[in-house]
Amino acid sequence: MNIARVVLLLFFTIPVLAQRKPKKDNEDLDDSKYLGYGFTTNTHSGLLGGFVFRSSTPVSVSRKNNPIHRYIAFEAINIKHPKEYLKGTIQGTKYVYGKTNYLFVLRPEYGREWYFFTKNTENSIGLSGILAAGPSFGITKPYYIKYGGNGRNDVPQVVVYDPEVFVDQNQILGSASIWQGFLNNAGFIPGAHIKAAVNIDMSTFNNKITGFELGSTFELFSRSPEIISTKITSNPAAYASAYLTLYFGSKKLGKKKAN
């Protein structure tokens, strides 16, 4: 799936589909508080790239009487190297050639959400823009493979993969579980990130929310995290990616007078 193309397409088409009633001065404005959770994918991950928790609370209104919210979120993301690829084994299993570490990133975020259209009928949608930033806490975890054990009574070893040590491709029997070793020998790499997105509210019930968040993220680490062995390729310290998040949650309804 080309997420970047989907994001660009929706940036241009969603405003056309959104519907709202024009607001007059001093008209009641939607002052709902939103709390949601969801799943995300991006151009540097697999189909399931991570998990997201988000909160949106009104703080003021714009000159056009549209709500402005305080946006707070927390993301737990798995980042893959751009050159990762799966390689088959003689047993039909697969592993990532040259991979030495997973990279998980914890991202607390703070920013603003500007509402352009609010959802006021079942046939309409809500549309808002988001700008947020925060620190990035990168965690590298060793990548394990199953090696050896081709004989009838042999049991394969589960080892940390080093492409310079485990060179016999016929002895590699696939990757081990992502939970193997848990956080043994984990490394920490600090960084920072910023993201810009559009949020689409598709909810159909007054106190429930279902929506999409589509945008792009730029992230910079203090040093390059090694995901693929440096003997094979270089590892970037900066990642720019497009992402798509599907989230669910609830909202607390309220009303607020525009000044």
Write out key terms for the chains shown:
259 residues; single chain; 53% strand; mainly beta; 3-stranded antiparallel beta sheet; 1 helix; Porin; 8-stranded antiparallel β-barrel
Indicate the topology.
Elements: H1 3-17, E1 28-30, E2 33-42, E3 50-61, E4 67-79, E5 86-88, E6 94-96, E7 101-117, E8 126-142, E9 144-147, E10 157-160, E11 172-175, E12 187-201, E13 208-221, E14 238-252, E15 255-257
Write structural notes for this entry:
With 259 residues, this protein is mainly beta. The chain has one domain (3-257): Beta Barrel (Porin), CATH 2.40.160.20. 6% of the residues lie in helices and 53% in strands. The chain is built from 1 helix and 15 strands. The protein has one helix at 3-17, and strands spanning 28-30, 33-42, 50-61, 67-79, 86-88, 94-96, 101-117, 126-142, 144-147, 157-160, 172-175, 187-201, 208-221, 238-252, 255-257. An 8-stranded antiparallel barrel has the order 2-3-4-7-8-12-13-14. Strand 12 and strand 13 form a beta hairpin. The longest helix is centred in the N-terminal third of the chain and has 15 residues, at 3-17. Residues 6-29 have low confidence and may be disordered.
